Structures are given as structure tokens and as C-alpha cells.
């Protein structure tokens, strides 16, 4: 039996009827047509589905949708503004942190959660924050460089 849940997605209030056993990823993709978070492993191991819930990066494929009641969810679609790409997105493009693109939304969302709480992370802190995200294309060097560059861009704009 479906239940009505209310929460915010990318700053917009939403109401969704969902089965209690559904995960957040299913609701984002199938009910709200937000396709940025990807279905990868389905077990919370690859990070392709990473979104931010109330400032914490979470694997939406294992996050129970009923847990978002009254919360704020940020997806990759919510980063872009009328002015253009978010500085983290720009940094990933500039430093070649994007290859095939499948892991990119999750990587960017994990990086955003990190940079929101720690604007000047060390390389080790970046690697730790991204540890739950798998990439088969880049070898992570360009991804770490992208996050470091994003930190530089964001520090100049604040």
C-alpha cells in the first residue's frame, strides 16, 4: 500500500506516493524523472547513485524513501543554476575528471558534501570522501585533481 511522503528535492517541495519498501533512487528516477543518479550495483557499493540528504552524501539505492519525509534532497540536477554549471561541475570538466560519465554525478555529489563541510580538504581527505565511489575509467587521479581545483575555485568565489 502506497503512502504519501513530502520532502524537498533541489529546493522544491514534492509529494510522492511510494511503497514503504522502495528506495530513494527509485522515487527520484521513476516518480520524479530525475535521471542523474545512476543505478549501478544496487547494494550501496559503487556510489553511482549518490545524492545529498540534509548535507550528507548517501547511496540512494539503499536509502529507504520513507526516511526522506520532511528532509532536503539535492541531486546533480540541482547543482546547475541559471548562471551555469556549479564550480565543482566545471572543475571536473576542466581537469578531465569526467570520462564515460557514469560515475560522475555520484562523484560530484560526494565532492560537494565534502567541500560543504571542509572547504580546503587534503588529498587524503578527498580520497576518503570519495572512497565509496567507483570509477573504471580515470584511475582517480583526475577526479582528485578535479576536487582540489573545485576547492580553489570555491575559495576564490567566497
Structure description:
- The protein has 158 residues and is α+β, with helices and mostly antiparallel strands.
- It has 2 domains: 3-78, Beta-grasp domain (Ubiquitin-like (UB roll)), CATH 3.10.20; 87-157, DNA polymerase, domain 1.
- 34% of the residues lie in helices and 16% in strands.
- The chain has helices at residues 24-31, 87-94, 104-117, 123-129, 141-157; strands spanning 3-9, 12-18, 50-53, 56-59, 72-74.
- A 5-stranded mixed sheet has the order 2-1-5-3-4, sandwiched between helices.
- A hairpin with a 2-residue loop joins strand 3 (50-53) and strand 4 (56-59).
- Helix 2 packs across helix 5.
- The longest helix has 17 residues, at 141-157.
- The chain is globular and about 45 Å long.
- The protein starts with a strand and ends with a helix.
Strand order of the largest sheet: 2-1-5-3-4
Gross morphology is globular
Please identify which CATH superfamily of the largest domain we are dealing with: Beta-grasp domain
Specify the oligomeric state. Answer: single chain
Span between termini: 47 Å
Count of domains: 2
Label the structural class. alpha+beta
* Helix-strand pattern: EEHEEEHHHH
What proportion strand?
Answer: 15-25%
Distinctive features:
single chain, 158 residues, alpha+beta, Ubiquitin-like (UB roll), DNA polymerase, domain 1, five-stranded mixed β-sheet, 5 strands
